[in-house]
TrEMBL record:
Its main location: membrane. PANTHER family: INNER MEMBRANE PROTEIN YPHA-RELATED, OXIDOREDUCTASE CATD-RELATED. This is DoxX family protein. The keyword Phosphoprotein does not apply. Belongs to the DoxX family. It is a multi-pass membrane protein. The keyword Transmembrane helix applies. It comes from the Bacteria.
Length: 128
């Protein structure tokens, strides 16, 4: 019989990993110019832009597979905190639709924290 909490963990992992992976693939194809510009505007070293590949390409693959998903989700959570800070400055400004301007990266942050707290579940490469 299928264990519902483990199915929920799988669904969370797949949703988070697949959705953020699209962002990473986009940056792989089109480059890191936007990220580099934000880093430069804040006086941060440009080599940090390569961390996006870790957070948006490698970590999502690990999350999808359930391979060290807690660690990978920690990397992604740090990536999202950094993105929110660099792109939005944690301002309370809203989008034209009424939500916070940084609503999407915040949702990825929360999902990452949930994977850290809940773990991979039974349907994962390194399940326990």
């Amino acid at each position: 019989m299928l264990h519902q909490p483990d199915i929920a963990k799988l669904l969370l992992r797949l949703s988070l990993g697949i959705l953020i992976l699209f962002h990473g693939i986009h940056k792989l194809i089109y480059g890191l110019n936007g990220v580099s510009a934000m880093l430069s505007a804040h006086g941060w070293p440009l080599f940090l832009s390569y961390g996006v590949y870790m957070g948006e390409l490698i970590a999502p693959i690990f999350i999808i597979l359930g391979l060290y998903a807690r660690v990978a989700s920690g990397i992604l959570a740090f990536n999202m905190l950094t993105a929110i800070y660099l792109a939005y400055g944690f301002s309370l400004s809203t989008s034209k639709y009424g939500g916070l301007s940084w609503e999407t990266p915040f949702l990825y942050l929360i999902m990452s924290i949930l994977v850290i707290l809940l773990g991979s579940g039974k349907y994962a490469v390194n399940s326990k």
